[in-house]
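#struct-pred

JT: dropping the chains for the assembly here, can someone run the whole complex?
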Amino acid sequence: MPDSSVHTAQSAHEEHPAYLRHHFNSTVQQADAAGFAMWLFLLTEVMFFSGLFTAYLIYRNWYYPAFVSGSHQLNVVWGATNTVVLIFSSFTMAMGVWCAETRRRRGLVLCLTLTFFLGLCFLGIKTVEYREKIEKHHVPGFHYSLQSFLDPQSDPEVYAEYHDKPLVPDMARHTELYFSLYFLMTGMHALHMIIGIGILGFMIMRARAGAYTTGHVTFVENFGLYWHFVDIIWIYLFALLYLISRHQ
Amino acid sequence: MSEHTIVSLPDQATARIPKDNYITRENGLLSWLLTSDHKRIAILYLISLSFFFFIGGALAGLIRLELLTPQADLMATDTYNKVFTMHGVIMIFFFLVPSVPATLGNFFIPMMIGAKDLALPKINLLSWYLYMAGGLLALYTMAIGGVDTGWTFTTPLSTHYVNTNVLTTGLAAFIAGFSSILTGLNFIVTIHKMRAPGMTWFRLPLFIWAHYAASILMVLATPVVAIAILLIALERTLGIGVFDPTKGGDPLLFQHLFWFYSHPAVYIMILPGMGVISEVISTFSRKRVFGYTAVAFSSVAIAVFGFFVWAHHMFIMGISNYAVLVFSLLTMLVAVPSAIKIFNWTFTLYKGSITFETPMIYAFGFLGLFTIGGMTGVFLGSSGTDIHLTETYFIVAHFHFVMVGGMLMAFLAGIHFWWPKMTGRMYPEKLSQLAAVVTFIGFNLTFFPQFILGMLGMPRRYAAYPPEFQILNVFSTAGATILGVGYLLPVLYLVWSLRYGAIAGDNPWQATGLEWQTQSPPLTENFAVAPVMDHEAYDYEWLEKQQKEKGVASAG
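RK: done, full complex below.
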């Protein structure tokens, strides 16, 4: 971890900077190992999400009409906005890594702060969306309501856009499964965002103190990988959850 | 027996344990709890693993006592369910999965490849803390009443029908899973990035290859069981419906997700053991492992095939006949790399100079018991016999032959083999040979009757059984007592040896691995001079030449 990197300015000799941990032979080996470990960690994350994607795939095939009606309840505009927000945050993050590599402290702090606020912005929009679901009783559990699916005209906004036909009760109740997966997948993604934002806050503080811009950029680089990964997961979620009926 | 031995100890009158080593470098409890030295973490794991092993073992003892009589008389049937569940949970998640990798792997992977430490020492310590957190949570669960779903958390039993502590047990397994992921990740990075100059992939000891394969499984499979357990928890607390047929969910999905981890998990458990056996057999027959490349790749093959056989746990659960056909075939394919290993070890023995030190006796035990365990796996892999044998004691006997007869034998072989390196002292040879033989006899007496019981149709997981099965159950319980003695003995004499054992010197077995070419116990940084690998693995001629040169140097 980067605890010694702040003091590297003092270490005069190039071949043995203070951030080189004792068990590595060179800084290249150290950075290589950390980067490789990060990619492996992301691989475990892929496998973690893959369980949810499998469940989604199976139930979407079984209960396609329910999944279509469920996805019509999602607000594509908010979803698309969030996608743009996240992609932009990936850009600022990438710029942050570049700033760290080229040793621009102020640029790094600026980029990280932008990424931080874009992340918060994403979560804010997500909260608005979740609130809408809670108000319509679309959160799975005891209070789940089938009304929007048994009688689409009771939901004039959505009806005006999609003109959904009413589902038979047996199919309609499977919308609950759709929303279970929706909350699980976006919730798991949001959890990753929250953790990421927490780490960003920590990094901003350290970056202001001059860390990461002394040649030892492993931490920023690897966090960047994590942030892009969370971004990519969202792009999949957006397509799978919001855009189900778009190809018709 | 004649005095055939390769053990060469230094002159006990003058020999001393080196003053500066990884144990003496720092003192105090905190220096252990906050260490990032892979060797110290391995010792932490060894102590905590042994602790959990004896708790799991005590539970096994209770099971065997209950089954001494046909009636459920020692404990209530509900209690019995909890006892076998906790036995499974503790033994699998807190003993077998981390056993060899977290102790011997942690200690020797860096040393064998000539590195100073694992690539991520702090992550390594974190994985021990996660392991302990999970383990203590499991013990807490046991104290507040336990869980009775079986270690498989089968839905809808675990989500709808039991009121026991599914959540805390699930959380314990979840946390332990992350410990396992971090260990595997650390090993893969270390093996890729930390090898000494000259240590090419095909000069690696087979112990490393086996751990590499197991690590791939840990990294790829464990996250899937994590999500499966998470879904169980949410199903139980919020009723999300993913596994609930009344809401359109499918309990079979849980089975798929669970076994996608839990089948590869048995290879996580056995592969590192196979690595130990390769080292031991080569050392005590003074020969390079026959077909080095084949053995190395068979580890990888087991890992790869291991990912595509999970549905053989579900043959009677209503998956399609075609799926049964395919998974049955794939299951039998796993027997091929396993057999390659067994045959290659046997050929290694051929014309070797075999000696019967304790690790070798355990390794022979492994060869016999694992072969039986593996072969009966083929019976269970073919769907016809599986339908007759599944959910009977045949299954219990099969996986105990592989896990206990295979993995535990390998673990003990490894512990004895590397004990002199870890502690600098020898264990008492005669007593430990006795323990190895007692374990072997006790094991067979315990589990062989269970094959017959299974064939006769005695179902697993019941506290009571028809009286005609009693005689075989009595054999089995008697065997368990002997087995218990076999496991207690090493604890006693190994602890004794810490103080009174003969001083081992650098290389008591005359083994070729890099870990033997440094002092015992090793320095904190493992090697006084960074090693360069200039010979093949298991090159006993190189070792002889090396020692001759050393002898000349010290004489001159």
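JT: nice. Residues 146 and 173 of chain A are 7 Å apart (CA to CA). The interface with chain B takes residues 1, 21-23, 25, 29, 32-34, 36-37, 40-41, 43-45, 47-52, 54-55, 58-59, 62-63, 140-142, 173-174, 176-177, 180-181, 183-184 of chain A (CB under 8 Å).
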